[in-house]
Design a protein that fits this description.
The protein is mainly beta. It has a single domain, classed as TolB, C-terminal domain (Neuraminidase, 6 Propeller). The protein contains six helices and 24 strands. Strand 9 and strand 10 form a beta hairpin.
């Protein structure tokens, strides 16, 4: 005979567990790493819908701790013991060919811009390795009289249209009275459209020192030089109104590279690192620190050293010959040699998708 006590036990509801308020869940998830969020998409339909929402991706990028990844086109590496705040992520190989013609243009908000120059064509891919999504842009046909070796590229975000843009500057030459004259045609693609647009001709006649432009404050910036005295300057394109300007450099001597430091333009001038605190204002250039100790200790074995990236915690990644790199910590003066399979690019981890 079954007692009333037994029946109550079998039919009673299971004990309830504490639940989070619905409006608190997005606040918690928006502060978690990308890798964990991708796993949480499988928890339920509502979480999958939330994490896939572009608005949530923007919120996550603004609130999460900045974590960098260093990526090669054929590999992804872990640098926990080399650079702080730098990790690798487990991603599939990019869904586009990786060969000697393919190289990085730059990155922003976790999206890497990759160019593949085929015969008479430029193929551009936007790739977020954190979420494994790739967007191939419409092919760009190269003019017959184009000097592709002097082509320059840029990738960045236009705050006016709230969209991403890719810029390609194609130097086209003509023979006039036995002399070669160049005209820099500019093509620009806005993500979500199906074509490239012509904008006004690039007005700068200088030779680019760096092929890839640096993105800061809605502008793409290229380091270039002009004349027999090799006067260096920064050629800038505003992605919003598609206008040009020239930015002056500080009186710092030999300039090795143009980079970005805490959303400001950054120059590596010989042994010194400079940054422009107020974009476009020459008087706002200040010297951050000197890297002479590291250069002096490695100059004998690695005479060619150029800065690749300056991290927000004052660590610098230098490139030597071939695929050899050096990480340098300015705070304690230590450095470490790193070997890679090919060239690399730095990007933050994000949920931002290039597939509009």
């Amino acid at each position: 005979m079954i007692s009333n006590k037994t029946i109550r036990t079998l039919t009673s509801s299971p004990p309830s567990f504490p639940t989070l308020p619905f409006d608190l869940i997005p606040k918690i998830l928006s502060r978690l790493p990308v890798k964990l969020l991708l796993q949480f998409q499988c928890v339920c339909k509502s979480w999958n819908s939330l994490i896939s929402d572009p608005k949530f991706a923007k919120k996550h990028l603004s609130l999460s701790n900045t974590t960098y990844s260093l990526h090669c086109l054929r590999s992804s590496y872990s640098f926990d013991s080399v650079l702080t705040n730098v990790t690798a992520i487990n991603v599939a190989r990019p869904q586009f060919p990786s060969n000697d013609r393919v190289y990085f243009v730059g990155s922003y908000n976790g999206i890497l811009c990759v160019v593949d120059r085929c015969i008479d064509l430029f193929l551009v891919h936007l790739w977020n390795p954190s979420i494994g999504k790739v967007k191939e842009l419409p092919p760009l046909v190269e003019p017959q009289n184009c000097c592709h070796r002097r082509s320059i590229y840029g990738f960045g975000y236009d705050p006016v249209s709230d969209n991403y843009k890719v810029v390609v500057v194609l130097p086209v030459f003509d023979f006039i009275n036995g002399r070669i004259y160049y005209k820099n045609n500019v093509k620009i693609h806005t993500l979500g459209t199906d074509s490239w647009k012509n904008i006004s001709v690039f007005p700068f006649a200088g030779i680019p020192i760096q092929q890839s432009g640096q993105y800061v404050s809605g502008t793409i910036n290229w380091l270039a030089c002009i004349g027999r005295n090799c006067r260096c300057f920064i050629a800038s394109l505003d992605l919003g109104d598609e206008s040009y300007q020239e930015c002056s450099l500080p009186d710092c001597g030999k300039i090795d590279a143009l980079s970005v430091y805490r959303d400001c333009l950054c120059l590596i001038c010989g042994e010194d690192v400079w940054t422009m605190k107020e974009y476009g204002n020459k008087e706002s250039w200040i010297k951050l620190f000197t890297i002479s100790n590291m250069r002096n200790s490695l100059a004998s074995s690695h005479p060619y050293i150029k800065a690749k990236y300056v991290f927000e915690d004052d660590q610098v990644l230098f490139k030597c010959w071939s695929h050899t790199y050096i990480s340098y910590d300015f705070r304690n003066g230590t450095s470490k040699l790193i070997e890679f399979e090919d060239n690399l690019e730095v990007c933050v981890e994000s949920l931002i998708s290039p597939c509009f």
